[in-house]
Amino acid sequence: MRYIADLLTLARLVLAFVVPGCILQHEWHLALILFGAAALSDALDGWCARCWPYTLEEEARLPWRRIDHHALDNGPDALMLALAVAALAFIIDYWWMLALLIYGVGALFFVAVQLFIHRGKAKVAEVTDVVFGYWFVINIGMVAMEMAYRADVMVWTLGVGLGILAVLLPLKWARVVSRPETREAAMKHAK
To answer: Do 39 and 55 touch, CB atoms closer than 8 A?
Structure first.
């Protein structure tokens, strides 16, 4: 059971490459379904990791468990968004401007969080990281809405999206309001 969280993360990593391929092939329905599955897996892997944690021996023995857990979880999410936005920008003219906005603002948030961490500004770093999370969710929504529009299932997608949000929000509530790992990293630099 302990491997379920890691398998969900691995599946999301694979989907990060499959979804843009679907977009480039104009397979909008499939892209939207896989994109939604990836979003659900993001919430479920955290829940599974909390339900079935690794032992200290397993953490030391398994090579992928030595990677920072938050980077391991967030990497496939960021890659999925980056590649989906790039694929949309490649085939839809106005997505070039959105891509520049998404990548630019995302880079500014990342740099700001890192700067606040290294200056030991724990609360500011954490709040900035939480706002960055909201920005990320807005971008996920924009990509999903574009795919839904192209698949001609906008109303259906809104209904399903609200249903998914109702499931995800309780599972991800701790991430919605705080980033303890960011606060802890900044507090280490403050000492």
So the answer is: no
Task: Give the Å distances, CA to CA, from 157 to 26, 83, 138.
Answer: 17, 21, 15
Please give the single-letter amino acid code of residue 136: F
Q: At what angle do helices 3-24 and 28-51 cross, to 10 degrees?
A: 170
Q: What is the pLDDT of residues 104-121, one digit of tens each?
A: 999 999 999 999 999 999
Residue pair 84/23 in contact by the 8 Å Cβ criterion? yes
Six-digit token pair at 36?
């939604």
Owning domain of residue 21 = 3-190
CA distances from 113 to 37, 69, 74, 131, 132 (A): 29, 18, 15, 10, 9
What is the C-alpha to C-alpha distance for residues 47 and 51, in angstroms, rounded to an integer?
6
Q: Tell me, what amino acid is at 18? A: V
Quote the CA–CA distance of 170 and 143 in Å, as a whole number.
23
Which tokens hold the place of 89? 């920008």
pTM of this structure: 0.84
Structural domain count of the chain: 1
